[in-house]
Amino acid sequence: MLNKIIIMGRLTRDPELRRTQSGTAVTSFSIACDRDFKSQSGEKETDFIDVVAWRGTAEFVSKYFAKGRMAVVEGRLQIRDWTDRDGGKRRSAEVVADNVYFGDSKRDSGGDFGGSSYGAPPAYGAPPASGRASGFGGGSDFAEIGEEDGELPF
């Protein structure tokens, strides 16, 4: 069986970090996702999708994300049955996040946010023409090896 979902949208509210009785971090938030098509009236429609994140992912989201920030959420769809205050049976769908990534840049968001996500490896680019690679955390000691250097060291 496969239950994998990836959504991208803007947070509709600030994430709420809570802890279970055993101390496990959990946060919930909602993502606004525009549909790819317009309604019959010519207006774009938006879906508001509830998301819950646990443990380190929850702490990461609550620390670095806020209302209006673009996020990419990777996880699974979960359907929960519950009883409301009046005793009525209810059903809710939510995404349980495995990973949450920034969907916009630091410049686009206007905030002072980093560039990676919890659970994701740092992103490394190709070395610039100078031969120095700049990856996660700034400069690096990597250098290009030219043909004149002889044999490769591995």
Short précis:
The protein is mainly beta and 154 residues long. The protein is built from two helices and six strands. It has helices at residues 55-64, 106-109; strands at 5-11, 16-19, 25-38, 44-54, 70-83, 89-102.
List keywords for this structure.
single chain, mainly beta, 6 strands, 9% helix, 42% strand
Question: What does the model show?
Answer:
- It is a single chain.
- The protein has 154 residues and is mainly beta.
- Helix content is 9%, strand content 42%.
- It is built from two helices and six strands.
- It has helices at 55-64, 106-109; strands at residues 5-11, 16-19, 25-38, 44-54, 70-83, 89-102.
- The chain has a five-stranded mixed beta barrel with strand order 1-3-4-6-5.
- It is globular, with a radius of gyration of 21 Å.
- The termini are far apart.
- 16% of the residues are buried.
Radius of gyration: 21 Å
The helix content, as a percent range, equals under 10%
Order of helices and strands: EEEEHEEH
Largest sheet: number of strands, sense, barrel closure: 5 strands, mixed, barrel
Structural class, by secondary structure, is mainly beta
Uncertain runs with pLDDT below 50, 5 residues or more?
A: 111-139
Strand content: 35-45%
Distance between the termini: 42 Å
> Major sheet: order of its strands?
1-3-4-6-5
Number of helices: 2
The coarse silhouette is: globular
Number of strands: 6
Mean pLDDT: 79
